[in-house]
Amino acid sequence: MKGPAAAAPARKRRASAGPRSRPQKRPRDGGRDGDLISNLPDAVLGTIISLLPTKDGARTQAIARRWRPLWRSSPLNLDASYNLHRDEFKRLSVVSRVLSDLPGPARCFAFRFIRLHKAKKRFAEDAAQISSWFHSPSLRNLQELDIGFDLLEYGGHEQTDKEKRCPLPPSVFCSASTLVVVSISSCDFPREIAPSPNFPLKQLKLWRVSISDDVFSNVLSACHVLDSLDLS
């Protein structure tokens, strides 16, 4: 009689324990039941993407289907550094392709140490390509610009600074009505520019830039809210 009676509590314990719950798998499409970041509103995700380097921002399209249109519509911080492409000359084509494929606006554009081909024909082609960037709708409302060139060298012989500098295309100022921060280095400043009468520029840096006195005076007279001026 003791055997069956003693086994009863054990059966109760097994019954009260119930079936073990299995961990649920998270969906792989980044839906509402997936990762916490994908649960954020599109506006917040767009802000996050806009703060990433260009290459990393483009990679977010692979996270999930929902992320694919976000990179294309988010304000872009386009940094054409060595991480974008190691080849100095091919980087020009990569920038052109990004601007062509991107319907969304760019907030910041940075391209330092731009190197152009020395051959006259290739030099003209490179210069025309750079000029075309600033006619792109993506850069129409640009707020920050950081652009600079490598000084040209000719057969190792020393040349004057003016001969070494690349010309800055006048199209750079197509977005003059929205530019707030501008840094320009190692180039010849265009003699004819038409900055907006309401040039909202607050910070201006010119480093190793050849610019005439009258053009410099015209630029400053259009900057009514300029807080910082750095000339080197």
Automatic annotation (TrEMBL):
Instruction: Tell me the first and last residues of the signal peptide.
Output: none
Among Pfam families, the record links this protein to: F-box, LRR_At5g56370
UniProt domain F-box: residue ranges: 37-77
* Gene3D superfamilies membership: Ribonuclease Inhibitor (3.80.10.10)
What is the top-level taxon of the source organism?
Eukaryota
Tell me the segments the record calls region Disordered: 1-36
* Basic and acidic residues composition bias: residue spans: 26-35
Q: Taking every annotated instance into account, which residue ranges of this chain make up the domain F-box/LRR-repeat protein 15/At3g58940/PEG3-like LRR?
A: 131-231
Q: What is this protein called?
A: F-box domain-containing protein
Native organism is Triticum turgidum subsp. durum (Durum wheat)
